[in-house]
Specification:
The structure holds two protein chains of two kinds.
Chain A: H1 3-16, H2 27-32, H3 37-60, H4 70-92, H5 94-100, H6 102-105, H7 111-119, H8 126-156, E1 158-159, E2 162-163, H9 178-195
Antiparallel strand pairs in A: 1-2
Chain B: H1 2-49, H2 60-70, E1 71-76, E2 79-85, E3 92-102, E4 107-114, E5 121-128, H3 142-146, E6 164-166, E7 176-178, H4 184-210
Parallel strand pairs in B: 6-7
Antiparallel strand pairs in B: 1-2, 2-3, 3-4, 4-5
Helix pairs in contact in B: 1-2
Classes of the chains: A mainly alpha, B alpha+beta.
């Protein structure tokens, strides 16, 4: 497949049609898990895995799946991968699994995954679908890690548990609570959208 | 038309069978590790409610060791009780027993520790539940279980209840603690199960003590 097409898919998922700040999807978990970078990283990696594998599987089955039941099939596939991730986390990273709690299971409900399955994987071959899944997942992880960076730094004074703020720093506790998440995410969306094309305009090189 | 519908049903059935088999397979491969993790989690909870210091960075093997040295588990007459020992491994510092009961969405599982004379509560913690995160789920938070620490074990009122969970901020009497705002169902469940298990275990432990069994 042409290199430029792979790049186009990647840039689209990561920036031009970023699922979080462009399509405003996956907001719930974006707010809930971003108070610590380590949790966010695991969440992001889990989502990349699930989106990529679901896209791959939906694409592989696209010609034999009856159209009328396609959403049940997508949900089954997504749920299976998420439960596999949940089992692996419980077995090998139990503390992080505790910290993420119900949000791992809630990946099933994350609109990004089903959105990509419906919009892309259903109509494309497996390899581009896999790439698209990885790209959207990376776009999501990129936004979350940025939000988490500021929330953990200002709210705990650390990044990945490593203390970075000077000793006299007073933690901005609001940053680790829900309002802080809303402020950070809103701010991010505002800044990111100022760089891209305005809504309604055609983005250059639209897919 | 019928053929199409039949194919859809067969397809869905076959696909579901396949994916559930794969998920079950992954679970089977990881089952022992998950059970080990659950056991370690339980051991940590028992140690902490008995007042035995568990440092945050502690490794799993050390937890097992500490549990071996400082706690003795007894299962008798369908009841489970843990004896906690001091640093010397001999002086009794408390008894711990399981708490179970229905919550709002599902069963709640916890551990409660009382002093050797069965006069007051030393610690309490919930380790498994299906309650709403942020509402009923707050039963695992330190402020909630911390309310019970140091409270005397006695029955009050007509119903001879041990504790009453009242609206947050209105707790006045000795046996009243704050419920969780917005989690009435969970709070009621907690109130009931603590009462039931205290009534169940405290007399039984006293009896076992009298017989010299624990």
């Amino acid at each position: 497949m042409a290199k430029s097409k792979s790049m186009a898919i990647f840039v689209s998922g990561l920036w031009k049609e970023n699922p979080v700040f462009r399509q405003i999807l996956g907001i719930c978990s974006a707010l809930a898990v971003t108070n610590l970078m380590m949790n966010t990283l695991i969440m992001g990696l889990s989502l990349i895995f699930v989106t990529a594998m679901s896209n791959l599987t939906v694409s592989a089955l696209r010609s034999i799946t009856p159209v009328r039941i396609r959403m049940m099939v997508q949900t089954l596939i997504i749920a299976s991968y998420v439960i596999i991730v949940d089992i692996l986390l419980k077995a090998h990273l139990p503390d992080i699994s505790e910290a993420l709690g119900p949000y791992v299971g809630l990946i099933i409900t994350n609109c990004i995954i089903m959105g990509r399955c419906e919009a892309f994987a259903r109509h494309n071959t497996p390899w581009p679908s896999l790439l698209d899944g990885v790209a959207s997942g990376c776009g999501y992880a990129f936004v979350l890690l940025t939000v988490a960076f500021f929330r953990e730094l200002l709210g705990f004074g650390t990044v990945f548990g490593v203390r970075l703020m000077p000793g006299g720093w007073t933690n901005w506790t609001i940053m680790v609570m829900a309002p802080g998440a809303f402020f950070m995410l809103g701010g991010f969306i505002w800044v990111a959208r100022s760089f891209g094309p305005r809504d309604g305009e055609k983005p250059e090189g639209a897919r | 038309m019928i053929k199409k519908r039949l194919f859809s049903v067969a397809y869905m059935f076959g696909l579901t069978l396949f994916f559930t088999a794969v998920v079950s397979g992954v679970y089977e491969l990881n089952r022992t590790q998950i059970e080990v993790n659950e056991e370690i989690k339980l051991q940590k909870i028992v140690l902490s409610v008995l007042g035995i210091d568990v440092k945050p960075g502690i490794r799993d093997a050390e937890i097992g060791e500490m549990f071996e040295n400082r706690v003795a588990r007894h299962e008798r007459e369908g009841k489970t009780v843990y004896q906690g020992f001091g640093e010397d491994g001999k002086t009794l510092i408390g008894y711990a027993f399981p708490l179970t009961g229905p919550g709002f969405w599902g069963p709640l599982y916890g551990i409660m520790a009382v002093d050797p004379q069965l006069r007051q509560i030393q610690g309490m913690a919930f380790y498994r539940h299906s309650e709403t995160p942020g509402l009923g789920g707050r039963i695992t938070e330190a402020w909630f279980s911390g309310q019970f620490v140091g409270k005397k074990i006695r029955r009050v009122g007509k119903e001879e209840r041990h504790f009453s969970l009242v609206p947050a901020g209105t707790a006045t009497a000795e046996n009243e603690v704050d419920a969780i705002t917005g989690a009435t169902g969970t709070s009621r469940g907690v109130e009931r199960l603590i009462d039931k298990d205290l009534k169940d275990y405290v007399p039984w432990i006293a009896q076992q003590r009298a017989k010299g069994l624990i």
